[in-house]
Amino acid sequence: MDTVFHTLHDFLLHSKNITYILVGGILVGMLLFWLFLSGRDEKKRTF
Amino acid sequence: MPQETAHKNKSIFTPFNVITGIIILGGLIITVLRFTGGLGAVTNLDDNNPWGVWIGFDLLVGVALAAGGYVTSAACYIFGLKRYHSAVRPAILTAFLGYALVVMALHYDVGRPWRLPYPIFLSPGTTSLLYEVALCVFLYLTVLFIEYSPAALEWLGVKRVRNLVVRLTLVLTIFGVILSTLHQSSLGALFMIAPSKLHPLWYSSYLPVFFFVSSIFAGLSMVILEGALAHRFLHDKMDETHLKESKAVALGFGKAASFVMMGYVAIKLIGIAIDNNWHYLATGWGLWFLLELLGFVALPAFIYAVAAREQNLRLVRWSSIIAVLGVVLNRLNISLIAFNWHLPSADRYFPSWMEVAISVFVVTVGIVAYRFICTRMPILYEHPDYQQH
Amino acid sequence: MGISRRQFLGWMSAAGVSVTAGSRAQAASNKTFSGYPGAFGILHDTTRCIGCRKCEEACNRVNGLPVPEQPFDDLTVLSALRRTRTDTFTVVNQFTTSGSERPTYAKTQCNHCLEPACASACFVRALRKVQTGAVIYDASLCVGCRYCMIACPFNIPTYEYNEPLTPRVVKCTMCHPLIEKGELPGCVADCPKEALSFGPRDLMIKLARQRIAKYSDTYIDHIYGEHEMGGTSWLYISGTPFSEIGMREDLGNQTASSFTAGPLAAVPVVVALWPVLLTGIYAISKRKDKIAAEERIDAVARTLADANEEMKTKLAEMKDAMKKEKEAAINLEVKKALEEAAKQAAESQQDDQGIRPDASEEEN
User: Fold this and answer.
1) Which residue in chain B is spatially nearest to C123 when comparing CA positions?
2) Closest residue of C to B54, CA-based?
3) In this complex, which of A9, A27, A47 lies closest to B127 when CB atoms are compared?
4) Distance, CA of B125 to CA of C350 (rounded, Å)
5) Is C113 helix (H, G, I), strand (E, B) or coil?
6) How many CB atoms lie within 10 A of CB B93?
7) Taking every pair of C-alpha atoms in chain C, what is the biggest distance, in angstroms?
8) Where are the domains positioned within chain B?
9) Which residues pair with C235 in a beta bridge?
């Protein structure tokens, strides 16, 4: 990994790459956390 | 349960089949021309105008009008408005077919359609908003397919899988709203890279917000419109619940759309104020802009409001036509009409008849598929074997 | 379908460890971007251009482009404005300008911007800026979406619309293979009037400034491309206003990337916050429904209880009333019986006294 970004484009490419991967993890993580949060609630009836 | 209709003695050459058959045949011929002669053989695209009706209409308008899926399912499952439940499956079907058709149209427009998976799986250009659009559309099409599948699974009698999928409804709905927010707004953001090419009245740093908000009332209006069409042409496929709820759906959605549209008018005005572009309103382009905003957004919003107050179903349905046309006009303005406004008229773009024919072909395929599915699968009625979903 | 606390914590710590196990990277967040060091630039002095089209010919030869119908020494093509095409990476155009009797000529080609809009727009990284400063195209990745053509403020990229299966985006390459070897780009090498100068970009800017300072009457005091769209590798100096030689002066100095950086930055925030917002609405709506349902049940139960109470009191009242009636009836009967007995006693007394007028009749 470069220590210096010579162009804004290189910087954005790098930061967006990380961001998109992070975002995928956040979606999964949120889902898991919600299941954890409501884990002890009474079972809800399905629609 | 749907009433049985005696089709057995009818010939295959119904007016519907004949007309759609001709369109589809014509479309297939032009398809061959497109892939043997290239884009130049079929379109009026050139180096100054790289995007035409296949992007302006099939992609931009198609995605906006398919927004009824996420809006209706959000209303029913996230906001808990269960009285709109019967509208969910038709809306999801429209959205699923809509996005599938967008992908189909992209196969015509893009130079090497077999490379469409490249940005997602091979070489992501994450600095590009088009990457974001591609990723979200790909994911959302998957979500829509899964949301649509219970209807098909019920038709096929695959009970266990169907029940499993139904339990995913809430998660899928939330994912759907997230993905829709992202790609609806990003389609607007696509044009932010070219401020020198889009007329100042349409170019704004709020383009993503404009596109997202207008997708909401585009979706609401399409649900109203399709409800009217289904009532007229697929009446015998609608069960009691659907028939009973349809008026409340139309009036409720019209009321909601009215309010959202007024909010949209407000942010459009703010957009002009922020960039101090008032003087453009006094030009020819300004008149065109005002026609789009006042005649095709503010006016139907007001008619919706009157219809909601008077509980007038017919008025709501007529207003939905104007509202839908307004969204179409907006997307065409941004991508084709107000785009490249600087260029001399000799260099401006106008679609070739074959481009229009392919667009008509794509829409026709969608209508045929919609009708095919609605007449066989539990979209407008509930399957007797399954509890209410 | 819930997961246990233990499971959740286990997953989260595994994720955390794997992140820290990555390479120890030097945190880089420079605030300014000055381009690749040593990247090349080309200075085009339009006061020296004579419109001979030798640069076009060189470009055609060096890149193996198809020979055009009209030869390059045919200068009648200059009577109409031309733009780049798939067989023409560069064009020279002729302009009649306000200040001078002689026409001005200007060469147009890809400007190899420092922050190229096309590279920013490309969703498959087919266009990239490289160390030499050239913006080059990788046909093996391109999907043919043509967003780069929408993005380019100079309208440079062209497309092979007549290729059915292998259409490419076409534009000037800055003769990248040549300049990597230390040679000059084709157009620069063949210009007979030194209207084109090639070297490190900052040197070209210095050269331009020197020339403008030395001949201040000849040149407009502006280097086009020094800052436009964030700066370009091609730099132009002119004796006539740039807008009169086909160059837009309303593009501004902001890079194309900066126009889309805002919306791009909003994307991850939507992904992170929408789940919270939407699930929250769902939970609140569900709770409202639950409470409404409970209240309904309560109301029904209460109504039932009230009705029961009412019935009970009514029954009790009825019971009371019936009891009273019964008592009254009993009292009446008792009274009657007592009167009967008293009467009978009086009669038997009379019997005993020998007075029995209608005894047989009374016993009936």
Assistant:
1) B125
2) C145
3) A9
4) 135
5) strand
6) 24
7) 178
8) 25-34+46-374
9) C43
Residues of B in contact with A9 (CB under 8 A): 127
Query: Are B84 and B138 spatial neighbours (Cβ–Cβ below 8 Å)?
Result: no
Cβ contact B176:B140 at 8 Å: yes
Do residues B367 and B87 make contact, with C-beta atoms less than 8 angstroms apart?
no
Q: What is the dihedral of CA C344, C345, C347, C352, to 10 degrees?
A: 140
The CATH label, of 3.30.70.20, 2.60.120.430, 3.40.390.30, 3.30.870.10, for the domain at C35-254 is: 3.30.70.20
Instruction: Provide the token pair at C136.
Output: 């080059």
Rounded Cα distance between B243 and B1, Å, is 12
State the DSSP H helix or E strand holding residue B165, giving kind and residue range, or none if neither.
helix B159-167
Strand pairing report for C40-45 and C234-237:
parallel
Is the distance from CB of B128 to CB of C147 less than 8 angstroms?
A: yes
What are B69-125's pLDDT values in tens digits?
999 999 999 999 999 999 999 999 999 999 999 999 999 999 999 999 999 999 999
Q: Which amino acid would we find at residue B286?
A: G
Q: What is the pLDDT of residues A2-46, one digit of tens each?
A: 468 999 999 999 999 999 999 999 999 988 988 888 877 766 555
Rounded CA-CA distance C38/C29 in Å is: 21
Instruction: Please answer yes or no on whether A9 and C119 come within 8 Å at the CB atom.
Output: yes
Amino acid C363: pLDDT? 47
B41: DSSP letter? G
Interface of B with C in 23-82 (CB under 8 A): 34-41, 43, 45-48, 50-51, 74, 77-80
Whole-angstrom CA distances from C235 to C79, C106, C149, C222 are: 25, 12, 21, 10
> β-strands C196-200, C234-237: how paired?
unpaired
Within 8 A of B135 by CB-CB distance, chain A residues are 20
Angstrom distance (rounded) from CA A43 to CA A32 = 17
Q: Which of C278, C281, C286, C289 to mutate to test the interface with B (most CBs of B within 10 A)?
A: C278
Residue-wise pLDDT tens digits, B118-129: 999 999 999 999
Question: Beta strands of B62-185 (E only): which ranges?
Answer: none
DSSP string, B222-286: HHHHHHHHHHHHSGGG--HHHHHHHHHHHHHHHHHHHHHHHHHHHHHHHHHHHHT-GGGGGSHHH
What are the extents of the domains in chain C? 35-254, 262-345
Which chain B residues are within 8 Å of C147, Cβ to Cβ? 128, 130, 190
A30 lies within 8 A of chain C by CB: yes
Q: How many Å lie between the alpha carbon of A8 and the closest alpha carbon of chain B?
A: 10
Q: Does B125 touch chain C (CB under 8 A)?
A: yes
Give dist(CA B272, CA B201) in Å, integer: 7
Provide the token pair at C4: 């246990």
Q: Which amino acid is at B362?
A: V
Interface check for A38 against chain B (CB to CB < 8 A): the answer is no
* B148 vs B283: CA distance, rounded Å: 47
CB contact under 8 A, C281 and B40: no
pTM: 0.88
What is the C-alpha R_g of chain A? 19
Contact list, B109 vs chain C (CB under 8 Å): 145
